[in-house]
Amino acid sequence: MHPDLAIEYNFPLKTLNSFGIDARAQCYARIESLAQLRAVLAEPALAALPRLVLGGGSNIVLGGDYAGLVLHMALPGMELVGADAHAHYVRAGAGVNWHAFVQWTLARGLGGLENLSLIPGTVGAAPIQNIGAYGVEIKDVFHSLTVFDSASGATFALDREACRFGYRDSVFKHAEGRDWLIVDVTFALPTSWQANLRYAELAQALAERGVDAPTARQVADTVIAIRQRKLPDPALIGNAGSFFKNPVVTRAECLALLERYPALVHHSQADGGEKLAAGWLIDQCGWKGRNLGPAGVYPKQALVLVNNGGASGADILRLAQAIQRDVQARYGVLLAPEPVFV
Ligand code: EPU
């Protein structure tokens, strides 16, 4: 076996998943380089195991101990790789903490990622669900990424089109991209930066601070303040951010719902659909702040499920299903979970 490789057995995952679920991995490898990744997968006994690729662990629900190999993607590095008339190109290793990377770009005077401040997780996980907040998704500032294809052993680059980004979606969530491990990601941060204040709550928060032409730093600080006010810090209360995606219904379905529920929160989409606020639907069903065993709904944001201490994956799932049942019964809408159940 490769001399730098330390495979751990029966390895605790509690601090490696943001829900803080107490589960263990049969085998665990921390991957800090492409060479290490190749070496682990060159071991037939390891390559044959079921595999969980772990980034920041902020979008998973562990159903119990993992009977397989956990590949903890910890590839480091942040660098400015180029610039032209349109953009500065910055690249980060898959294992870099997302928020640390956003801060790194801001410290260099580069705007573009500020609306995505304080999102938990890693750079390498960000494209998988096309992370988005406050009017920006990473696809808006994405340039390309490098993948390692665990089926063929090849590495290659994918551009934005090849990643097939959608709302909390990408090629990596579909069959074609299932064997691809993201190694690093490059972003194109616009030279002619302009604040993106399309999200009303952000614009309003900046106005309240008396800022009318904000810098990227000021936008970041405001996003951080909003998130800290509404969302639980996973270091203190286990959670995985928004637990459900905001459902998209047809305009006709939305109109029918509006007749019965005039206060329904909805946003028209470019493709003619209407995106509903899952947090509002859950809140209206009376779940905000309610607990089911050790799992609960965060009192300040109904879209976030929390581990109040000692919750298992099954406890989280039971709560999620109870919420789905109530929302479906009342609004006829099935909420789809955002995290991956392992
Ligand atoms: N609402 C309620 N009650 C609640 C929560 C929300 O009535 O308990 C209403 C709000 O008043 C608002 C609407 O629902 O009218 C939408 O709420 P909010 O602006 O807080 O955003 P969200 O739709 O709940 C989405 C993303 C978040 C992202 C924010 C800001 C999804 C699934 N979630 O939340 O992303 O930070 O917008 O852009 O798209 C994440 O994915 O983990 C995440 C936190």
- Please give the largest β-sheet: 5 strands, antiparallel
Count every beta strand, where a strand is a DSSP E run of 2 or more residues: 20
Runs in which pLDDT lies below 50 for 5 or more consecutive residues are none
Overall, the morphology is globular
Strand fraction: 25-35%
The helix/strand order is: EEHHEEEEEHEEEEHEHHEEHEEHEEEHE
Coarse structural class: alpha+beta
Task: For the largest sheet, list the strands in their spatial order.
Answer: 6-7-12-10-11
**Mean pLDDT reading:** 96
List the helices and strands and how they pair.
Blueprint: E1 7-12, E2 24-31, H1 34-41, H2 44-47, E3 51-54, E4 60-61, E5 66-73, E6 78-83, E7 87-93, H3 98-107, E8 132-133, E9 136-137, E10 142-149, E11 155-159, H4 160-163, E12 180-190, H5 200-208, H6 216-230, E13 238-242, E14 248-249, H7 251-260, E15 266-268, E16 274-276, H8 278-284, E17 291-292, E18 295-297, E19 304-307, H9 313-331, E20 340-341
The protein binds uridine-diphosphate-2(N-acetylglucosaminyl) butyric acid.
Uridine-diphosphate-2(N-acetylglucosaminyl) butyric acid binds next to strand 13 and helix 8.
